[in-house]
C-alpha cells in the first residue's frame, strides 16, 4: 500500500512513470505494494471528488495505454518482456478499482483492455466465441456489457477479426470515427494513429463501414463491402477508395509477411518499429513523400533493412539502441 496519500495528479504521474519504466525504485516498490494490496477505503480519501475520480478513471483506462502505443518511445528489448504485461494488468486493476468507488448498484461494467505491445502479438477469444488477433502495438477495448444488447469493441492499431454469427447482437468495431458493423464474417482492420489512411479488408462475408463524428450525422463509407475487397479511408481528405485485394495480401502480417500498399517511408519505418520493438528514425535530406507498393517476408531486421534498401534506395545504420534510415538523395 502506498505510504503516501496521492492527489489525482500525483497518482496519474506515478502510474505513467511506472508504465514507461522511468519510475524510481522507491516509486516502483510503492506502486507494486499498492497494486498487491489495494483497498477501496484508503483510495477514497485521495479521490473524494466523484468528478475527478471518474475523469481519472477514464484517462487511466482509455488514455494511457493508447498514448504510450502512439507517442512514447519504445523500451529497449531487454526490458520489454515484463513491463507491458505489468502495466496492462496495473491499469486494468486501477481502472476497475476506481470505477467501483461509490458507484450505484446498477452500472455498466468497466471495459476490458487487451494490449499487444511492440514486438509481440496476441490472440483473444471473446465471450461469444469471436476471435481477435492483435498485431504489434495494438490496443483492443471490449465493452463491459459486451453481448448483452450488442457486441462492441474499440480498436487502436491492427487486428484480424473472426466474428461468430449472431444476427440478434450486431458486432461493431470503433476505430476513431470509423465504425465497422458485421453480423458474422472475417476481416482485417488497420487503424494505427500515425497512419494517414486506414483500411478495412474483408476475407469472408460482408461488412458495413461508417464514419461517425463526435458531433454530426453518420456517413456511410461502404454500405456492403464484400470478400476480397478493401476500403481505404483517407483521414485528411476523407476520401474513400475501394479496391480488390487477394487473400495472400489480406492480413498478411498473420503469416509473417510485410505488405505495404501506397505506404510512405514514415509508415514503413513505424511498422518496423512496432514489429521489432526498436526505435526507427528517418534522417537525411532526401524526399520522404514517395509512396511504395512492396511486400516481403518478415525476416530478421538486418535482412529486412537490406531488402528495403534494394527496393527503395534508402541506406541505413543499425545502432545498439536504434535504427536510422537515411533517405535517398534526389537530384
From TrEMBL:
A GO MF term: sigma factor antagonist activity
FecR protein domain segment(s): 117-208
Recorded superkingdom: Bacteria
A Pfam family reported for this protein in Swiss-Prot or TrEMBL: FecR
Parts forming coiled coils: none
Record-linked InterPro entries: FecR, FecR_C, Ferrdict_sens_TM
The Protein FecR C-terminal domain, residue ranges: 257-325
Protein name: FecR family protein
Native source organism of the sequence: Chitinophaga japonensis (Flexibacter japonensis)
Amino acid at each position: 500500500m502506498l505510504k503516501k496519500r496521492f492527489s489525482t495528479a500525483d497518482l496519474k504521474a506515478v502510474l505513467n512513470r511506472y508504465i514507461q519504466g522511468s519510475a524510481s525504485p522507491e516509486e516502483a516498490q510503492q506502486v507494486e505494494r499498492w497494486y498487491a494490496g489495494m483497498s477501496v477505503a484508503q483510495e477514497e480519501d485521495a479521490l473524494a471528488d466523484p468528478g475527478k475520480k471518474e475523469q481519472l478513471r477514464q484517462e487511466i483506462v482509455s488514455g494511457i495505454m493508447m498514448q504510450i502505443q502512439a507517442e512514447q518511445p519504445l523500451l529497449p528489448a531487454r526490458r520489454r518482456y515484463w513491463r507491458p504485461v505489468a502495466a496492462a494488468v496495473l491499469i486494468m486493476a486501477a481502472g476497475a478499482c476506481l470505477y467501483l468507488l461509490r458507484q450505484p448498484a446498477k452500472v455498466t461494467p468497466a471495459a476490458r483492455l487487451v494490449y499487444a505491445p511492440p514486438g509481440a502479438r496476441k490472440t483473444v477469444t471473446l465471450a461469444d466465441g469471436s476471435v481477435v488477433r492483435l498485431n504489434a502495438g495494438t490496443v483492443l477495448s471490449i465493452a463491459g456489457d459486451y453481448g448483452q444488447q450488442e457486441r462492441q469493441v474499440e480498436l487502436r492499431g491492427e487486428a484480424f477479426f473472426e466474428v461468430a454469427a449472431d444476427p440478434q447482437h450486431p458486432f461493431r468495431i470503433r476505430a476513431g470515427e470509423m465504425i465497422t458493423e458485421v453480423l458474422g464474417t472475417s476481416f482485417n482492420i488497420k487503424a494505427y494513429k500515425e497512419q494517414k489512411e486506414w483500411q478495412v479488408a474483408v476475407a469472408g462475408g460482408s461488412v458495413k463501414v461508417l464514419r461517425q463524428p463526435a458531433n454530426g450525422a453518420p456517413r456511410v463509407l461502404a454500405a456492403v463491402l464484400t470478400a476480397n475487397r478493401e476500403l481505404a479511408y483517407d483521414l485528411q481528405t476523407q476520401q474513400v477508395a475501394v479496391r480488390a485485394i487477394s487473400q495472400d495480401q489480406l492480413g498478411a502480417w498473420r503469416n509473417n509477411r510485410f505488405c505495404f500498399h501506397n505506404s510512405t517511408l514514415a509508415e514503413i519505418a513505424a511498422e518496423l518499429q512496432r514489429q521489432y520493438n526498436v526505435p526507427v528514425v528517418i534522417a537525411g535530406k532526401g524526399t520522404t513523400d514517395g509512396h511504395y507498393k512492396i511486400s516481403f517476408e518478415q525476416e530478421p531486421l538486418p535482412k529486412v533493412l537490406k531488402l528495403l534498401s534494394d527496393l527503395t534506395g534508402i541506406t541505413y545504420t543499425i545502432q545498439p539502441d536504434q535504427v536510422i534510415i537515411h533517405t535517398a538523395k534526389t537530384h
